[in-house]
Amino acid sequence: APMTNPKIGKLAHNAKYDYIVLAQHGLVVSPLTFDTMLAEFIVDPSSRNLGLKNLAFAKLGEEMTHIEELIGKGKKQISMADVAIESVAPYAVADAENTLRLMPLEEKELKRVNGEKLLEEIDMPLTAVLAEMEMTGISLDLPFFAEMDKELTKRLSQIEKKVFDSVGKPFNINSTQQLSDVLFKTLALEPPDKNNKTASGHYSTAAGVLDELSGKHPVVDWVLEQRELSKIKSTYVDALPVAINPKTNRVHTSYSQIGAVTGRLSSNNPNLQNIPIRSETGRRVRNGFVADRGNWLISVDYSQIELRIVAHMAQDEGMLAAFRADEDIHATTAAAIYNVALDAVTKDMRRHAKAINFGLIYGMSAFGLMRGTDLTLAEAENFVKAYFTKFPGVKKYLDGIRKQAASQGYVETLLGRRRYFPALQGRTNPQLKAREEREAINAPIQGTAADIMKIAMLKIPPALKKAKLSGKMLLQVHDELVLECPKDEVEKTAKVVKETMADAYELDIPLSTEARYGANWGEMKTI
To answer: How far is 37 from 14, CA to CA, in rounded Å?
Structure first.
């Protein structure tokens, strides 16, 4: 059949969607050779024309029928299956025809940005890999979520009672206006910024405001906890069990290759990449993701991949040496900046060094460092100065990226994935410029890490097959991969995955990986 004939390449716009629909009906389309959506994303990740209708209009001047014209909107919306064939046929044919007409135009554009290899060697082959992961899905422990729901409900009503008793009257905690009145009128707290008012004329109760008021009155801290818990409850504890597919009894997220301008994957319906890690309660949500009976989950992640990429790109001797010696990079940085021996580094010193290491990846200024730590502005400035004296390569690299972004209007990952920064070339407002400059510094670093992870994901399934292992990839959370495999294959699987990830791309220093395993995603032991 043409759909499976290896000599006939298949082209689509958002091929993964069609691939999954057909695969679920027993037809595995292969090979997928071109995707006009992924091509347009490589040409310009911030393109407004990633949808077929927009792309066809922008490049071909074609006004395509919008799906709502066939199926309606809102409550009256019908299924495509109920639309008359004579209406569906031209709609479907236009999809195929315009995609075919767009392909040569997109190929020309890809050539212009040197993006052919990215599409051919990474983004296209990744489509089928992501489709497999989505179809595999992951199991949830329903009794665990039911129990957690009970606990959160109880804790939330306790918090409410405390707040009401303390204020002397019940009110709706979720109403920002009522909360504002309670904090700033009833309790007469001093707003951190008197100019920060909402449209209704109330003082703002945004997260940043409450954080600054934290410790000024117990009610503030209770409200912060209430917000956090109710968000975890509604976003995960209540929403995840409802997302289970009754046919498979598993949750199936969708991965998008065009979801983030840096080239990172994004996950939606449900989003499994934003499960909190900072807070105790948020972390516990991971315990609800479980392996099927007889299996274990394995999580393998890259350790400090972004800092390793910085060291490689900047060719900074001090940083490269620290990674080659397999030292704790934050401690090494602290020792260098504070001018003390490695064993004299305190927890506080290491914490400050870590903040600056990560801050630099995000283009942070001394002002940003001050806000993220307990340093004064003068201390933070000295800190940054000392850092650049010790790591001159990093300073040279960061300055170089700023210049490059401003002169050519774009930056690239190590694999040549571009991102454009138009504001840096014009006379735009300084805030926008500062933001674009920060993003321009971060894009090549985060984008390279994303590219490397994609290459690893392409290599893992064949590597497992070659080793006669039956494990499958389930989730990707930026620097981490979660797999499921039979219990007796855990060590071998972890070894293959770790090696494949470490060898995905060659930097001047080794990529280091760490593997853990367990019955659920939250409680795992290092392998």
So the answer is: 6
